[in-house]
Amino acid sequence: MRLTHFGHACVRVQDGDRVLVIDPGTFSDAQAALSGATAVLVSHEHPDHIDVEALKAARADNPALTVHTHAALAEELGEGATAAAAGETFTAAGFTVKAVGGVHAEVIDGLPGCPNLGFIVDGLYHPGDSLFVPTDEVDTLLVPAAGPWVKIGEAITFVRGVRPARAFPIHDIQLSKVGLEYFDEWLEEETEYARIPVGESVDL
């Protein structure tokens, strides 16, 4: 299974002709990520996790493209979108996916207060905008590195709670080069950890 990072929170999972994209947002190269995809997982509705126009274009090119997200966003997206709920297991692009979590991490005063689904795809966990620790075994964790709702100590606690075999950072566009290096230094102490440069891939 090949994992490719398309920037910020967007990754592509591919195994042969099975192609699944998670969170193709406006801060990533969503168009490239969606090219040839057969299914898409969207954690929540914030633009850095879903580029609606890029998704519409991809569905125009491939009407069979399916989108899986929480119920409110699925209704908003309309045809081709399927609602998922925390605790449910389903198949997308031939991969077994479990939806977990359910709520976006709080920034302050209960905000943003919107749904957020994390997705476990054959042992790969993408939490969206949350630090939800699932009870499921996780081989590979995509750990959020920056945002108004997360700090380094919380990211470390998240990694310790999940206990993955390996971890890669995502959600990092707000960090400078120095910030990226600083985050990496902390996380390297916790688990097998590496950064996937944008546009590059690793085999899991």
From TrEMBL:
Q: Which residues form the Metallo-beta-lactamase domain?
A: 7-171
SMART domains named in the record: Lactamase_B
Q: Which PANTHER family match?
A: UPF0173 METAL-DEPENDENT HYDROLASE MJ1163, UPF0173 METAL-DEPENDENT HYDROLASE MJ1163-RELATED
What InterPro entries has UniProt attached to this entry? Metallo-B-lactamas (IPR001279), RibonucZ/Hydroxyglut_hydro (IPR036866), UPF0173_UPF0282_UlaG_hydrolase (IPR050114)
According to its UniProt entry, this protein's organism is Actinomadura violacea
Which named protein is this? MBL fold metallo-hydrolase
The signal peptide, as residue positions, is none
Q: Which Gene3D superfamilies match?
A: Ribonuclease Z/Hydroxyacylglutathione hydrolase-like
Q: Which SUPFAM superfamilies match?
A: Metallo-hydrolase/oxidoreductase (SSF56281)
